[in-house]
Amino acid sequence: MSASTPTSRRGFMHALTGLAANAAAVPRQGLLLSTQLAGLAAMAQQSSHAADLNGGYKAVVCVFLNGGCDTHNWVVPIDTEGYAAYSKARPDLAWPLARLQAIATTGQAAGRTLAMPVELAPLARWYNAGKASVVLNCGTLERPVTKAEYLAGAGLPRKLFSHNDQASMWQSLSTEGARSGWGGRMGDLLMAANAHPVFTAVSATGNAVFLTGQNVTQFQVGANGLVATSGVNAPSIYGAARGSTALGRVLNPSTTDPLLAEYTRVLQRGLNANGLLQSALGGASVPPLPTTAVAASGGTATLDTIGLAQQLRVVLQMIAANQTLGMRRQVFMVSMGGFDTHANQMRDQPGHMAQVAGSIDYFLTSLQTLGLLNNVTLFTASDFGRTLVSNGDGSDHGWGSHHFVAGGAVRGGTTLGRFPNLATGSGDDIGSGRLLPGIGVSQLAASLGGWMGLSASEQLQVLPNLGNFGPGPGLF
């Protein structure tokens, strides 16, 4: 097809650009249409072919911080105007300047300087080394929303500020009860590249909608490795020597009962996968977790006892075994709790930050040692941000928040998006210091999906609301 053909890719892009411009000329009524067309035009710049699986092995790792992480204290403005607004909004929750270490900031207004607290020094080092970035003021959005629209209740995600629903929105783009997540839907499109598709989507933190697809079934591992099926090949079950034999009959039933047949199929698949994985992990040598002391609530602990670090080590083992298992694309999830800080925030937050930073630092350092840092991208997520305004001992449920993305392929050493105005009552404050997100989860997810090899049309399959947005944060 020639470049002059009206239905060519170039012609399609030209038509979209013109329609977006015309729609923008119609105030308010054309705003959403303009945004949708602009988003489609931006995606049309990409190749429309099926998933690009070149570039060797790639994996995405979601670090979910359960409870709603107060990232107002993770990335802090220290320029005169910004710090004054920050400390005025939360006088009893603000870090003193002495605890904050400046990071290089690009893409922000002249004179704007950002910093991280000393507990996040390991993450700051990866940022300054160009291997991590910060996505600013990101949150659950179905489309871009203005403060006026928020106050009018227009175009808002359902059930804002609800833990279960907003955690589900982050993971699936739908409220609680969603049947698939965007990590799993990515896996649906990528699993054919893997010799063992059962290991496409892997959770080290229990069942999570993020990793559930239409065809992909998440494979679960424990913080200490494989989750074994009790009783198989055991000498006895509950003291009965014949128990193992009886269980063996269940695994090989001569029945037409569909429920029993499906139960048997799933159990047998798990046993087979566990055997395969156990063999592969036996040949995957990864650095041990260090016994470095880290802050913890009520004292100190060592990194090797921290659940998040243990989960990341299991993920590291599976990534190291990718060639043995014949894997080319994988999506992982780990998590840590304790971030619902309505109370005791300033007591508990330093330990939480130190544990997250230490765990991620171990993971990235180990990937670098194994020569796999360029093949893996890690990102943080949480139910929602929190209020800037203190409740007297902590902060309450908010909306937009800042998140880290790290890996060798990331366009690191930069902040992506606009740092919000932290003055209470500003255009970014929808009440009590709840920030109106400037970047939608769909945009962050699209950047990750594009790096994994999903085409523009495949990104729309995974992220149904993506066409409502303009270009994403440009992670790579």
Automatic annotation (TrEMBL):
InterPro entries: DUF1501, TAT_signal
Highest taxon of the lineage: Bacteria
Name the record gives this protein: DUF1501 domain-containing protein
Organism of provenance: Pelomonas parva
